[in-house]
User: Fold these one by one.
Assistant:
Number 1:
Amino acid sequence: MRVSYVTVRKRLTLVLLIGFFIFAIIDVRLGYVQFALGEMLTERAKDLWSRNIPFEPERGEILDRNGVPLATNVSAPSVLVVPRQIENPAETAEKLANILNMPVEKVYKHLTKKTSIERIHPEGRKISHEKAKEIRALGLKGVYIAEDSKRYYPFGSYLSHVLGFAGIDNQGLMGLELYYDKELSGQKGSVQFYSDAKGKRMPDMADAYTSPVDGLNLKLTIDTRVQTILERELDIAETTYRPDGMIAIAMNPNNGEILGMASRPTFDPADFQNVPPEVFNRNLPIWSTYEPGSTFKIITLAAALEEKKVDLLRDHFYDSGHVHVAGATLHCWKRGGHGSQSFLEVVQNSCNPGFVELGERLGKEKLFEYIKAFGFGEKTGIDLQGEGKGILFPLHRVGPVEQATTAFGQGVAVTPIQQVAAVAAAVNGGFLYTPYIAKEWLDPVTGEVVRRQTPQVKRRVISEETSKQIRYALESVVAQGTGKGAFVDGYRVGGKTGTAQKAKDGQYLKNNHIVSFIGFAPADAPQLVVYVAVDNPKGTVQFGGVVAAPIVGNIMEDSLRALGVKPRKEQMEKETTWLDPRLVKIPNLIGLTKKDLQQQLFNLKLDVSGEGDVVIEQAPEPGVKVKEGATIRIYLGTKR
């Protein structure tokens, strides 16, 4: 059957149109792929070809308030391998094993893993620059040295529980390193190179570098001058008393800034792997919970004064040595009691029955209202991991005996940081601050402040007038009461001793106490609060006034001088005992001649220098109290 020419043309035209339509669709698709999807597909292809060598950011440094580095970084290269690029795994493994001091078989397993990039872990992590140089010199294909760093703590165990430590991947694991890990960590960078399916580098494609973003630097409220003094005194006490543990905290009572914090036992953050977890996991100043003993009497005193339940000078109390409460006999620490005393003397003598009386005048509801207002029974909110909140009796379970023992610091459990914050509120005018330790966040390049922590007032607990009376009473404790060991000539120091029995299995231990002292100075305008607790000191009488008070006195004297607080001549006169060294005031020798000096009658030694007949300089200056027999340095010159 013949097909007409017209039919053939129609069919050819139809085929042609269909062909044009198909090619149009292909062209549109190619154009769409080329122009619309081209960049995305290229990136996907690059992802298939690409291999990333990571570059770790510099972890932010931790500095004290004056810029002294407490935690920094040191360069520590790491070994990376691209298994598909390694030509002779056995030979490469042997060469690397010799340098990295590891079994050849272990290296070989890393080199033959079916991964794009493999870390030799842990032997190839954070290696020395000498080892890195040796590996580079071998020129092994597929073996790379990546820039890396590790944490460095220049002062060793100094401030260890506060700083904490970082792991091998520079991740924070404890302390501030963990609490502020996100801010300190920064963002990773990388070098990206391209290789084919066999892992060989593609020479016609340039490497891509993404720079890491370093972490922010953290400036603390810690003052290394104060911290050094705390560490020194704890070291001395550890040698002297061989205690089970020790705690020291120094805080600015006017804003909550922690100036120093230390504890024993301690550890080196760079060697935390070889330290028992119970040592590095427990930051005792914020974690440890125990009965406070007589330091807690400050809270009872504050409540009684604020509620006008007592007049320190006019009201009197007779202490027979014990008091009966609901069938229980509660004893004073002094056998036979203190007899008749004013309530100021009750505070000075740390008389338990006297504070039982104050507790009864307050009543349990009002007493516990103030205890909670001062922050006990809840966390202070300090920016450190692992804070405890203490233990208080539920109010419905508080009977007469529980009320009485709570009034003098037994039957409740508190943390050291709670006590410091509460006493700071008692002496600073009545304001309870949240303690904090992170002061500022700094840009690591410019050093500019990115973010600043400001003091946080939780509430006002007592009035300024009540706070003034507390300061006066506690200054008298140091000058004339149980806290004489903390007396510092030239500085008005106030404070309170504490001697707390330790309980185990529901019973108090014998001859096993936590002795403590909390002090502040200057007493009329406090700039510093210091708390020290010593757990079970050996070879001594276990009283806070004997063990802890002198430690606080030493810390106070040196810290106040370091902080620029000048000594003053006006202070409450210390009541001396036969154990105290006799003090004499240095006379004014300036202007006296050699002959005049020979006629002076004082029990002091002279260290004379200079040529001349007249005293033109002396040290210490006139009016300063020193021990009898101390040396005065004088300089002789000519009279002007």
Number 2:
Amino acid sequence: MIKKNSRFVAFSGCLALLAVLYSCANLGYPDGGAYDETPPVLLGSIPMQGAVNSKTKKIVLQFDEFIKLENASEKVVVSPPQFQKPEVKANGKKVVVELADSLLPDRTYSIDFADAIVDNNEGNPLGHFSFTFSTSNVIDTMQVGGYLLNAADLEPIKGVLVGLYSNLADSAFTTQPFLRVARTDSRGYFSIKGVANGAYRVYALDDMNQNFLFDQKSERIAFSDSIIRPSLTERVRMDTVWVDSLTIDTIIPRKYTAFLPDDILLQAFQEKQTLQYLTKSERNRKECFSLFFATENDSLPKWRGLNFDATDAFLMEKNEKMDTLQYWLKDSLVYNLDTLKVELDYWKTDTLGELHPQRDTLELSYKHKKNVQSKKEKEKEKTTFLYCKYDIPTTQDVYRDLVFDFAEPLAEIDHQMIHLEQQVDTLWEETAFTFKRDELQVRRYRLQAKWNPGETYRLRVDSTAFHSYYGLFTNKIEEKFKVHSLDDYASLFFNIKGTHGPVVVELLDSGGKVIRSVQMKNGQADFYYLAPGTYYARLYEDRNANNKWDTGLYEAHQQAEQMYYYPLKIQLKVMFEFTQDWNVQAVSLEKQKPLAIVKQKPEVRKVRNRNKKNNTNNRR
């Protein structure tokens, strides 16, 4: 009996001990231990970091833990630039780089890994890591840095080469490879390391053929107008030591060496295509043919018919650049010809890059499609109407026209069959309007009227009001709509400083799309009749006053037209007038574009927070 009781007591004690251990363990919910938040540490290398008189093309880096490489082909950059791509690989706790090009004498080599090296478990990056060695007895330690933005919209540009030339001639960029290079990160930031004392020009190149020089107009480029001279200075930064996420323990001043310049700003552009030639001609339907040119035209081509009379034979439709032209033939005797023979005179770029007159003979053929129709289909075809797409919203803005797009050019318009009426009490009264063709698009028409805010209108168009050149007419149209009240709108007024010459101000929606543009007058840009909502704004200095943004030209040392962004979001409410001062020089360009409409968002690496994890567990 005594033995049984002893066993029972011992068994009960074990259960109690297990219960205590279980309850203690539950305080933190064990999850495998603390998270590793420290990046890999470089223990040694062959050759040594900063080695001189080095002749080896194989570099081995030894770390304190197992590592891996992330996007090495995009992030790792060797300088001077390598024509043969180096092999970069991770092996356990090592990174091995094998250079394929021969080492140049008296050069400092730098291998910029950015944040490509991360630990194998948690992915903690060894950020901004660069390895340097020299083939001479001197190693260059200077650095220069800055930002690369897209000139048209101030977007940060990622993954583009930025390089230096000690040859200050403009021709160096087009005839010689870079002396030293770096690659931009997701913020558009670049840092060129291993630079010697001296004077340099800095360029950016979206290198399509990987030869490290600008030799194709399809390559996006940027250049600085000034010569840079690397230097260094001593600065002090304030490091904050935190007790916790809310309480500051100590603020410690720390000295550090700053390499200058560190604020180079480059704005990239792609040059306008200047080679002019006829790319193709086509005749997809018998009534019209199209001509396509490689770039925009300053003047229209001249042509004459060889097998028909071209006098007043067509209506021409063109786009804004006049590089796409569509000719609608009016005479059935002409468009029923299977082949049109045309002699075309236009300007073409020769082998020396100069424009000269060019005459081509074109044969524009239309292949008839066999179409066997039933009697019912033929009857249906007889009642086919001319297609008309019209933009008439149920609630009309006070400043908008009504837009009509026809499938074919109009030969006849019966204005007596178009009725615009305003509702007065219960009656409809005719109101004045104009109906006219768009200047560029011959098949687009605009109905313009002085809309009375808050009033209701009705548009009635009788059938057969519009006739095309090809025998079709429109069906009837009847639409009722109301014009917004002035109380539905807000207004926005900018007082602008810091610009030069003519300026065009553009208003953007919440997605960054241009919805309205005005020319600045006397330092002011006014936007009336705005719907309530979120807006952004930008402007560009319109040097040639053509009311459109123009790109740059390297040969003429001409930068793209300067773009600026208003750096804040604008929230408008109904019956609200917002006046804002805007000094375009107050904020540096790389910080101007609001992050909400930046498409190339900065990459933020997610680092696990051990304290946050533990605090979450303790609350369970």
